[in-house]
């Protein structure tokens, strides 16, 4: 939805899901249960060494899952999201700040976690950009969000939201992993989960970021950012 100057927000908030909002990597849990951790890590390493694209990594790993949806739900029953994330959603609602989830993960897994942890109002306020999961029996496949080598170009999704407004908003991005590097480059305010891959990449490459441990800190910093914009 396009906005006029009077309704253009000062900034938008965009966040990764797996390992950032979720406290566990749902993909790793399910692929490890199917193909084993050693095989999954071998595929991960092929990507890290530049031998395959991230899109190919996902094809190989998700096609290796041999679980029914019911079994997957059971395996993820103890997987949770950051308990302070709901506070960030409420802050964005109260201040009319757009909030988007940009994920290389799968829609049904994201929905599963949010439906257990958020209210209907919170769910309806967020916009989710992700790949789509198709499960037929115990066979899993992905319908990718776009044609990029990433499968979902999260940076492009962020730009798509920012471009809706006549007055360009600042971008707050929150992430944790290597797949968030391109998104981080779109950010005016970058939050990287402390000690994980994105934080380490920023340290190595001299990229300014704000390390965080939980979303309680994010809410505090959003208040401070809002006060200066």
Summarize the structure.
It holds the Pfam family HAD. The chain has 229 residues and is α/β, with parallel strands linked by helices. Helix content is 45%, strand content 18%.
User: What is the count of distinct domains?
Assistant: 1
- The total of beta strands comes to 7
CATH topology: Rossmann fold
Q: Largest beta sheet: what is the strand line-up?
A: 4-3-2-1-5-6-7
Mean pLDDT: 92
What do we call the CATH homologous superfamily? HAD superfamily/HAD-like
Provide the CATH top-level class. Alpha Beta
String of helices and strands = EHHHHHEHHEEHEHEHEH
What class would the helix/strand composition place it in?
Answer: alpha/beta
Q: What separation lies between the terminal Cα atoms? A: 23 Å
Overall CATH architecture: 3-Layer(aba) Sandwich
The major beta sheet can be summarized as:
7 strands, mixed
- What percent strand? 15-25%
What is Rg?
A: 17 Å
Helix content: 40-55%
Number of helices: 11
Organism: Linderina pennispora
GO molecular function: phosphatase activity
Protein name: HAD-like protein
InterPro entries: HAD-like_hydrolase_phosphatase, HAD-like_sf, HAD_hydro_PyrdxlP_Pase-like, HAD_sf
């Amino acid at each position: 939805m396009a906005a006029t100057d009077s309704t253009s927000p000062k900034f938008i908030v965009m966040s990764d899901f797996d390992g950032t909002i979720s406290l566990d990597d749902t993909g790793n849990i399910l692929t490890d249960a199917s193909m084993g951790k050693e095989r999954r890590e071998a595929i991960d390493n092929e990507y890290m060494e530049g031998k395959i694209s991230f899109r190919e990594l996902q094809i190989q790993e998700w096609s290796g899952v041999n679980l029914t949806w019911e079994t997957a739900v059971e395996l993820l029953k103890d997987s949770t999201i950051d308990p302070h994330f709901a506070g960030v959603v409420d802050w964005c609602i109260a201040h009319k700040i757009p909030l988007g989830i940009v994920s290389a993960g799968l829609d049904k897994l994201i929905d599963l976690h949010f439906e257990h942890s958020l209210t209907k109002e919170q769910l309806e306020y967020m916009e989710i950009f992700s790949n789509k999961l198709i499960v037929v029996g115990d066979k899993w496949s992905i319908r990718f969000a776009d044609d990029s080598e990433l499968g979902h170009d999260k940076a492009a999704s962020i730009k798509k939201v920012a471009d809706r407004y006549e007055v360009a908003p600042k971008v707050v991005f929150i992430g944790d992993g290597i797949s968030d590097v391109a998104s981080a480059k779109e950010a005016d305010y970058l939050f990287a989960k402390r000690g994980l891959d994105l934080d380490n990449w920023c340290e190595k490459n001299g990229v300014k970021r704000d390390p965080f441990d939980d979303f309680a800190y994010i809410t505090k910093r959003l208040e401070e950012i809002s006060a200066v914009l």
